[in-house]
Amino acid sequence: EVQLVESGGGLVQPGGSLRLSCAVSGFTFSNYWMQWVRQAPGKGLVWVSRMNSDGSNTGYADSVKGRFTTSRDNARSVLYLQMNTLRVEDTAVYYCAREGYGPIDYWGQGTLVTVSS
Amino acid sequence: DIQMTQSPSTLSASVGDRVTITCRASQSISSWLAWYQQKPGKAPKLLIYTASNLEVGVPSRFSGSGSGTEFTLTISSLQPDDFATYYCQQYHSYPFIFGPGTKVDIK
Question: How far apart are CA A41 and CA B82, in angstroms?
Answer without folding.
Answer: 22
